[in-house]
Amino acid sequence: MESYMIYMPIVLAILGLIYMLIKRSSIMKQDAGDGKMKEISDHIYVGALAFLKAEYKLLTFFVIGASIALAGVATVVESTSYLIIVAFIIGAVFSAVAGNIGMRIATKTNVRTTQAAKTSLPKALNISFGGGTVMGLGVAGLAVLGLTAFFIIFYQMFMGGEWTNTTDMTLVLETLAGFSLGAESIALFARVGGGIYTKAADVGADLVGKVEAGIPEDDPRNPATIADNVGDNVGDVAGMGADLFGSYVATVLAAMVLGNYIIKDMGGAIEDAFGGIGTILLPMAIAGAGIIISIIGTFLVKISSNDAKEAQVQKALNIGNWTSIGLVAVACFGLVTWMLPETMKMEFFGEGLKEISSLRVFYATLVGLVVGGAISSFTEYYTGLGKKPILNIVQQSSTGAATNIIAGLATGMISTFSSVLLFAAAIWASYAFAGFYGVAMAASAMMATTAMQLAIDAFGPIADNAGGIAEMSEQEPIVRERTDILDSVGNTTAATGKGFAIASAALTALALFAAYVTFTDIDGINIFKAPVLSMLFVGGMVPVVFSALAMSSVGKAAMEMVEEVRRQFREIPGIMEGTGTPEYDKCVDISTKASLKQMLLPGILTIGFPIVIVLIGLLIYPDNHKLVAEMLGGYMAGVSVSGVLWAIFQNNAGGAWDNAKKSFEAGVEINGVMTYKGSDAHKAAVTGDTVGDPFKDTSGPSMNILIKLTCLIGLVIAPILGGHSETAVATNQNVEVIKEISVETQGDRTLDGTATAKVITKTTIGDGETLVKEKTFKGNLDEVTKQAEAYAKSQKN
Amino acid sequence: MESYMIYMPIVLAILGLIYMLIKRSSIMKQDAGDGKMKEISDHIYVGALAFLKAEYKLLTFFVIGASIALAGVATVVESTSYLIIVAFIIGAVFSAVAGNIGMRIATKTNVRTTQAAKTSLPKALNISFGGGTVMGLGVAGLAVLGLTAFFIIFYQMFMGGEWTNTTDMTLVLETLAGFSLGAESIALFARVGGGIYTKAADVGADLVGKVEAGIPEDDPRNPATIADNVGDNVGDVAGMGADLFGSYVATVLAAMVLGNYIIKDMGGAIEDAFGGIGTILLPMAIAGAGIIISIIGTFLVKISSNDAKEAQVQKALNIGNWTSIGLVAVACFGLVTWMLPETMKMEFFGEGLKEISSLRVFYATLVGLVVGGAISSFTEYYTGLGKKPILNIVQQSSTGAATNIIAGLATGMISTFSSVLLFAAAIWASYAFAGFYGVAMAASAMMATTAMQLAIDAFGPIADNAGGIAEMSEQEPIVRERTDILDSVGNTTAATGKGFAIASAALTALALFAAYVTFTDIDGINIFKAPVLSMLFVGGMVPVVFSALAMSSVGKAAMEMVEEVRRQFREIPGIMEGTGTPEYDKCVDISTKASLKQMLLPGILTIGFPIVIVLIGLLIYPDNHKLVAEMLGGYMAGVSVSGVLWAIFQNNAGGAWDNAKKSFEAGVEINGVMTYKGSDAHKAAVTGDTVGDPFKDTSGPSMNILIKLTCLIGLVIAPILGGHSETAVATNQNVEVIKEISVETQGDRTLDGTATAKVITKTTIGDGETLVKEKTFKGNLDEVTKQAEAYAKSQKN
């Protein structure tokens, strides 16, 4: 009995967190510079903490409100435990702590990176990437720790730490969903609020500083510049961290739910060396292994030459990344073949039960790893410097802003082609290999390298900040040159990181969607039912409206920022001459307040819509909970499909505009003429970039949270809709249901030692129609009896 | 027996066409002006005909190719008749003729409107609206004529003009689908090609003329100006006409298919005064009545004062429109209660058979009429001058093009909210009233006023052209002022017309979608099956990529135009002084060739994707045609949901930018300062308008065709997937199916004179599971036998 395996992920998570602390203290020991550098860095640190403090205050109210709502659910639904509230709160706290760790380390690492860049590029990379590593391990470690710990606790409480049946395990997992919901709710506010914050500050600072006052970016005379740098941390570090924390937890949870469903398909119990829950433990084990693998990967990210360019830095990151992915594949092979029964039975909709070898689950995980890699390449193609789409936008900039915008929009739109086909193929393939468990395991494998992905991703804004500090503290040009190399690579990793985030969100949403159907016990989601179809339309609309709200929020907040900066330029004497000190904190305050205020409406939209749909559904069909469950499922599908499309469209259009603008810095050839910064074409490209800013940093990335949170809310609501199904249908006016279930076990063993059991289900549906279903089991007497009883029970529900 | 009713729609259609001819000759008798006016008008006429000729040439190849493909389908599928090819070709020809009529009358009416505007505004309205009326009646008359004539012919050929059974009627309607497919295919090319044509010419003319050379719009010195005016006719007249022609035919067809399905639900035959096909005839009857009602409506569109302003003109149009809608409601009440059985039985998915009174079908038609009205109001709100969204965009223009673009995009995106909720509610409500027949009848009622809608819509571009001719032929300012009043109203009706077109496309697509499910005989479309879900994603992606292609096409074609105009400015001596004559035909030629070339890729995408999905599906699941049918259904749903969203987004964003720019003409207040044309804010608004041009006139309206054509192709492919289902499932390796159907009729009448029949269906599904379905019929012996046999037959398929 390898039942100690249940503790393995916790051990690995703790190891990861210990390594994180060591790494953290080694970074903190680095020289943090002095004088102006330190002062600016402190401003950023204080600004970031101010945002976090204000955000936590708001979130406290939200968590209290949501807890009350969950208590309501737990009161109404008999099978929902009050413990879901505890899990929810801890999930929220863990997510907030993960974001906090990331933001603190990022705002401490930035100045140390600047300081290191004074002498050595390798050291600067080492420190900035080290900061990212701390962030990544904090997120991944806390996610695995929290999820596994709660699982063990609930497994003890509801099942006494031993396998009983799938229904009890469903209770465990339903309660565990609270942890995921807590994490994802915080992610909503961190991602959306952070996204609004960073772009309000960025756009506001640019509009007055660069355009009106004609001072360069990151100029210390600009009162909004600190807010701008805080924004990098709030949006790109804390927002991204919370996003992936949420994905990570939700993916593993969904895989566990579907693992439980396999046990149901196999007759309600399996014999394995892991206490009969190997299929449920596997995703956690892979997540745990991923932490250690990510640490190994981070060791490989280093350069030796002080004269290295972008290519070498990128190569170092790639080596670390691809090694991690390769090691995860190896780990998946080992864990899958070790932990899963050699062959499993899985129900395929419309195709009945199928025998699935464990190797097919491994193939499904490979699908996930391929998706993670391929999506990054696609993103790089559509947003990468020197690639055809970017050159086309540059070319179109020569005829003005309008053609630049059209080209950028078209690039974003057409980029959905390859990514969506990839997703579609991945869903299909991983399902063909191992059903929806395969889809969830594909997502889990992809997410296993989350720590590594985050390290690569968070290093970008740290380098960006380091450059800002170098500029503001007026360092020698070589310092800025070095940080610019890191920053430039960081821009690419930011784009590919967004690709990873949306791929993870899409697969997570699908896994959650599958888990939802199993929780509600419906026979699938039939969009030929008009109420379901209409909810598919409504679901499709929500990401579009959400994006519009997020974009408008940036506009509104940026306008406030513009007015404040104008006021300071007007009222503070000597500010332009560098003798007067701008009131940075006022700008930080505006961004903080505006972002928190503006994120409310999108938040309400996300959380409110599923709830309203269920309420209206129950009002109109009080006796047909299954139809309401299907309606909510249709809504979830609509949000997912449309959300994925709009995420790719907005991220890639924004990224493409950004790099089209950047192309002018080194000079580009348009119709045979070299064109540089300051040209009309460049101005057109700047317009495009400004349009793209909220696209790629606010509304685009928010889609991830929207689709995941929607599916999670569905999962939490599921027991309300699923639990009452029997009574519900029984009282339906149009359909009368009578169920008679009898089990006849023919005890007489035949010559070859097999016994037969038959289960008959009789259902009378209205209008003189009856349905009789017979199922026969053959095999060993005990086994057959067990299977038949489990089947009968499943038919009763 | 009111079986003469089958001929009623034809008679009404012919009456409409006769009135059209009378109206047409009365317009042609009007004074067409002289000298330069006539010359310019002739240029436009010749240019428009040149486009039509080139288009027809290309379409001939397409029609031949598609006919061969249809012959292939007819060969493979036993139940598909070769007559579908005839129907297809005639459908294509009718659609082309309808477009031809519209374009010829529009290009003859424009100059007559200019001439009339010299003396009288009421007369100018009378003539321009008269041209629209000819167009509207041509489209509606030919649609009803063609559809009804083919129905009668096929009804005679396949059923001998008498009711036999629903299977035979399905054959009739499947063959009739060819007519609809032909119409919609032409619409694809007319809409997309026309959309590319008009915007390539418009953007090209503006970029060189207005921006580079600094000459006003419609200046005769600009070589692209004739192409620009031709474009108005090609895109807004012929394109819109073909679009609505296709919607009209498809909607009525879908309603007929679902009417046949009701007869199936009612046991395979109904007794009524209309030869037992009342439910099938009803949509045709409403369409026929709509033609006469539209004629009545057009009588009401007139103004008396020569000093009338936009408001009076708009009011005259509104009176005509609302009267028509009101009369259709009355006609629906009369026809529904007269032609339908008082109560019908309809199958509701998951809810069984329900008794539906005919009055509920009437309620469903009211839902359709409300949608038609409401969608126009929504569109007007988001794109109307002086409304909040426009004022917001104007305000945002003050900080530059970027904020103008963001505001416009956000407006388009947020406008999906109300429209999608309206659609969702309409689907739900009309389905709740009368199932999918209700949805199709809602669409039919809405489409009944097509002639009137088109008259209102086509009058806009005619007035626009009239203004252009006035400008180019240097008429007195009062002439241009009068045509400007008409043009301005025409801009509003163009926006609301687009709302009507997308609403009709959405409802048509849904009705076709429902018809598809009945044709393939699948049990709905379950998106919980991974292959179906992945196709939902793919379907969602196609409208986005289609839009990107259409937008890029405009960019490419416009660049060619720019180069040609530059060349002429350079090489033709005296062109800017007005002494040299520009080579207008060269520009017309460029637009023509470019649009025809560029529309190929989007066309291939639309037609190719469903076919590829079916081929891949059959390759992977050769024995499970039903799953392939569900996959295609998932694709159709994805295209519809995403297409509707992107249509609303693009149409409204484009319309909003357009009117934000127009706001500057009369002057707007920004931050307390009156701002006019030529200001920086106005320049920013012009940039937004240029971005919006392809949105609202190319890619946005193309979505209508994309979603309708996708669903129609599905419908035509349906027999391939549906017909073989029995054998298909039987050879599936995982599921073994044995069907035993026995009918036992208990002949002994009981005391109350009723007999009982029982049908038992026994299906053995793999893994030792069998399914026995019993259905009992009670009633009159003959009736019961008939019902039971029909039911048994339906179970066999």
Automatic annotation (TrEMBL), chains A, B:
InterPro entries per the UniProt record, alphabetical: PPase-energised_H-pump
Keywords, ordered alphabetically: Cell membrane, Ion transport, Magnesium, Membrane, Potassium, Sodium, Sodium transport, Translocase, Transmembrane, Transmembrane helix, Transport
UniProt keyword NAD present: no
Chain ranges passing through the membrane: 6-22, 58-76, 82-103, 124-155, 245-263, 275-299, 319-340, 361-382, 500-519, 531-551, 599-620, 632-649, 705-723
Main location: membrane
Any single GO CC term annotated in Swiss-Prot or TrEMBL for this entry: endomembrane system
GO molecular function, one term: inorganic diphosphate phosphatase activity
Location(s), subcellular: Cell membrane; Endomembrane system
Protein name: Putative K(+)-stimulated pyrophosphate-energized sodium pump
Record organism: Winogradskyella jejuensis
